[in-house]
Amino acid sequence: MSDQDLSPDALRILRGCEGIWAERFLNRTLFPAITGSHLIGTAGVKASLEVLADPLACVRVFFSHYAFARRGKDRSNSIALANESLDRWAEESASVFDEHNAERLWDIYEEVCILHHKKSLEQLNRGVIAGIAELAQEIYQDLDGASLATWIATKAKSTHRVEDCFLRLVDVRGIGPKTTSLFVRDVIYLFDLEATISHVDRLYLQPIDGTLRVLAPLIIDEEGIDQAADWILAGKLARAARRSGVSGIRFNMGAQYYGSIEGSRAAVMIDHLEFAFSGRTKEDH
């Protein structure tokens, strides 16, 4: 596949998502989510890396913006309860990451739920909360104080692969492949490692959502591509981005952000290509 294999609309979508829509995602969503501020560009990257390098702060970011992203209306409550518990746990111990499990964190979570008159929902939440904390402990102890994020970056730098980290995160009960892919994608982008990742692992940097499924037939000329399994679609979109000289990560980020603004209805996307992928919105027109 090369530029010649892609339609003008396909190239416009790939380049538009990679460009201004990815910038909007980074500056309006990712940097503020990690840093709590509205830094942009290299300042946003630098501040985000500083937060993610801290093991406790990195777990807090994971709880706040990844672990419960698919919880719908319960998302904000889940985040608040998990982070309050994390903070109380950290206040109790000189170093929670030198401990050998996160059983105390779960005990605190149950106490916090009682305090706020919420159910702890152990089957749903224990794996996410205690499981991620225990993985963070394991990483911290094995890699001389590394965080979840610096663990992924270190492995990627040494092996040019992310599959092992992806599979280890997915192995945590309650953490699915889409959540994992989002986190790994963002970490690899912030550490500027996308170009070093083996082509065979680029699919792990393409979380698939409704927007990507709507855009897929406009980029990839294959019958039924919008119905393909997530991993197949992710691989094909990563390949299309690579062969057209576009950052697959930025394309994915931009598509995600565009979908969050415009919605993922096919009619909206197709009817407004000239706005969406020139970097304008209908309101700008």
Textual characterization of the structure:
The chain is mostly helical and 285 residues long. The protein has helices at 8-35, 41-53, 55-67, 75-92, 103-115, 122-142, 148-159, 163-170, 177-190, 210-219, 230-243, 248-262, 266-271, 273-276. Helix 1 (8-35) crosses helix 2, helix 3 (55-67) packs antiparallel against helix 4 (75-92) and helix 10 (210-219) packs across helix 12. The model is unreliable at 281-285 (pLDDT under 50).
Q: Helix-strand pattern, N to C?
A: HHHHHHHHHHHHHH
Relative strand content: under 5%
Largest sheet: none
- Summed over residues and divided by their number, the pLDDT gives a mean of 90
Distance between the termini: 33 Å
Give the number of helices. 14
Envelope shape:
globular
Radius of gyration: 20 Å
List segments where confidence is low: pLDDT < 50 over at least 5 consecutive residues. Answer: 281-285
Structural class: mainly alpha
Total number of strands: 0
Helix % is 55-70%
Kindly summarize this structure in a few lines.
The chain is mainly α. The protein contains 14 helices and no strands.
Topology:
Elements: H1 8-35, H2 41-53, H3 55-67, H4 75-92, H5 103-115, H6 122-142, H7 148-159, H8 163-170, H9 177-190, H10 210-219, H11 230-243, H12 248-262, H13 266-271, H14 273-276
What are its keywords?
single chain; 285 residues; mainly alpha; 0% strand; globular
